[in-house]
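Before a colleague's protein record goes any further, I have to sign it off. What it holds is a sequence and that sequence's fold in C-alpha cell form. Would you go through it and say whether the fold makes sense for this chain? The record follows directly below this note.
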Amino acid sequence: MTSIRPADARISIIGAGPGGLTCARILQRHGIPAVVYDRDPGPDVRNQGGSLDLHADDGQVALREAGLLEDFRRLCRPEGQEMRELDIAGTIRRHTVPDADDFFKPEIDRGVLRDLLLDSLEPGTVHWGRALDSTDGRVLHFADGTTLETDLVIGADGAFSRVRPAVSSARPHYVGVSFLEAWFNDVDSDHAAVSQLVGRGSARAGDGDRGVFAQRNGGDHIRVYIIQKAPIDWIARAGLSTEDTDGIRARLRNEFGHWSPQMQQLVADNDGPYVDRPILALPVSHSWPHNPTVTLLGDAAHLMPPLGVGVNLAMLDASDLALALAGSATVDEAVRGYEATMLPRSHDIAKMLDGRAADLVSAFDGEDDDRP
C-alpha cells in the first residue's frame, strides 16, 4: 500500500501531555493538520503535577521549533535550578546556586507549560473526553464505542499507553523504588521552616535506605517525594491505605525517627493526603517492528525512572517526529526516519539510567555525581 503525503494525512495524536501538544504545535507551524485526543473531560479536571526542568539541549530545542522559547523564558523560574544536598540532620553539605542569567535547565510548573502549549494550538485541535480503547493503526476505537479512521496514530499517552499494544507487547515493570508524594501549601507563611530548608529550588537527602527530594513549585507550593526501596504494595502490607493519612504519617515518623526533627517535617508536616507513586519502567531495549501507521513518543515509547529526562525526551521526540513529517515525502518515510533517531537515543539513555532509581536513597558522600 502506498503511503500518503504527510500534508494529506489524517494524523491522530493520543494524549494531550507535553509531548503530544508539542508535536501538534510543530506540525501546525509547518502547515500539517493534526488532531489530539485526550481521555480527560477538559484541561482543568486534574492537577498536572509538580515542577520540571527543561534542558537547553532537548526540551528547549523542542520549544524553539514550536516558536515558544521566548514565552517559556518569560514563564520559567531560573532560580529553581538551585540545589541543596543535605544530610539527615538538615546540614547543607553541597549547595549549587545558578547565575542570574543561567537558563540551562530552568524550572516550570507542568500546568504552566501545558497551558503555554494549549494556547498556541489552533482552536479545536484537542478533543477532550475521548479515551482511546485500542487501535490497529488504521482505526481508533474509543471507550464510548465510537470509531474513527486515521492514517497515522502517534501514541503520546504515557506509561499505560493504549497505542503501544499495536506495535509492542511490552508492559511497564516496577523497579523496586516507591515515591510517596506530599504537598505543602502557602509555604512561606504556613511552613516557613520547610521553605527555608528547601530554598528557591530543590533539596535532597538520603540515608541509604530511604530518602527525600523536595522541590519548590510556583504559587508558594513545595512538593516532597519520600523515596523508599519497598514492595510495590508496601502500604497495604502495613495494613494501611492511601486514605489513611494519619496512619501513613505515623509510620513515616517511625521510619525516619533517626533523622532530625527539622528533616522529619519534610515527611510528616504536609497538607492533605499522600500520593502513592511506585516507579515503573519499560525494558531498556524496548523497540518494535516498523509500522507505517503507528509510532510512539515519550513514556509510551521509553518509560524510565524520574531522573530528569522524561518530559525533555518526550518533547524532543515530538519535535523530531514533527520535523520528519514536515520534511518527508510520505508518512512511512517520516516514521522510519524518526524511529531511526529516537530508538537508539532512548536505548542509550535508558541503559545509562537502568538501576539508578536506587541512587535516590543514597546518603550524601561528598563526591561529585550527576544525580538530579
